[in-house]
Design goal:
The chain is an alpha/beta fold and about 240 residues long. The protein has one domain. Helix content is about 25%, strand content about 20%. It is built from 5 helices and 10 strands, in the order E-H-H-E-E-E-E-E-H-E-H-H-E-E-E. The strands form 2 sheets. Strands 2-3-6-7-10-9-8 form a 7-stranded mixed β-sheet, with helices on both faces. A hairpin with a 2-residue loop joins strand 4 and strand 5 (about 105). Helix 1 (about 20-40) crosses helix 2 (about 50-70). The radius of gyration is 18 Å and the shape is globular.
């Protein structure tokens, strides 16, 4: 019987056995994704499709292959993992078997990092918000930041990642547009005042290169269903055009 089988010995949750704490392990995961995004974009065999489902699928396949080649084999990248209320995320970073991070054991059913992916701009559609990176139409909760704030995705995760596929305009343009929308939501008291002017995006340390921009933001969450701590969202934007 399965219950009688010995439990496997957990492996240290690092790609190289030198990362000893949860913050450092998280940084390794995000840095790996950031390095691989332009590699994935420029692969000559990648299908020339621009819709989000196909972009997410090929990215997930690429990240899994790259992680194996580089011996970053403590994690796997799962497309459309189930979240709360039968909702599905875009990509979930999951342990590949049992791993130990800072004394805590994680199994392969736990989500280490939830990832939302959004195109910039949002494709024109009267059923969608014009800036789905932030929020969806009233009652739909299809926005990337919105989903994390409301605990629909990553309810128990303290960190999250949003990947932006920048298909037109510049990084600075989208930073200005997104921050203006966040400020407007806070000013208007949207969602019962759960948006805050302190939740604007800011650039992470270091200047952006021409292909990838990295940003960070911190957002309060509804309590319940979420834990009381805010969610820290890292943003990686990739120039697709």
């Amino acid at each position: 019987m399965i219950a009688d089988e010995p439990r496997p010995t957990p492996a240290v949750g690092t790609p190289d056995a030198t990362v000893l704490n949860a913050d450092a392990f998280h940084r390794e995961i995000v840095a790996f994704i950031g390095r691989e995004l332009p590699v994935w974009r420029d692969r000559p065999t990648r299908p020339p499709l621009t819709d989000e489902p196909n972009l997410n699928q090929t990215l997930c396949v690429h990240l899994n292959s790259a992680s194996r080649r580089q011996c970053f084999d403590a994690v796997q990248f799962l497309q459309e993992p189930l979240q709360s209320s039968a909702r599905r995320g875009d990509i979930g970073v999951m342990p590949l078997g049992l791993i130990v991070v800072e004394g805590r054991t994680y199994d392969d059913f736990e989500q280490l990092l939830p990832i939302e992916c959004k195109r910039l701009p949002t494709p024109p559609d009267n059923r969608r918000s014009d800036l789905e990176y932030v929020h969806g139409l009233p009652g739909h909760r299809t926005g990337a930041i919105e989903r994390f704030k409301h605990g629909l995705h990553g309810r128990s995760n303290r960190r999250a990642l949003i990947i932006g596929y920048v298909q037109t305009e510049s990084f600075q343009y989208w930073l200005s547009v997104i921050n203006a929308r966040l400020a407007l939501l806070a000013k208007n008291g949207t969602d019962g005042g759960h948006w805050n002017p302190a939740e604007l995006l800011s650039r992470a340390t270091g200047s952006p290169d021409t292909n990838v921009d990295k940003l960070i933001s911190t957002h309060g969450r509804l309590v319940p269903p979420c834990c009381s701590s805010p969610v820290e969202i890292e943003h990686i934007w990739l120039r697709m055009n």
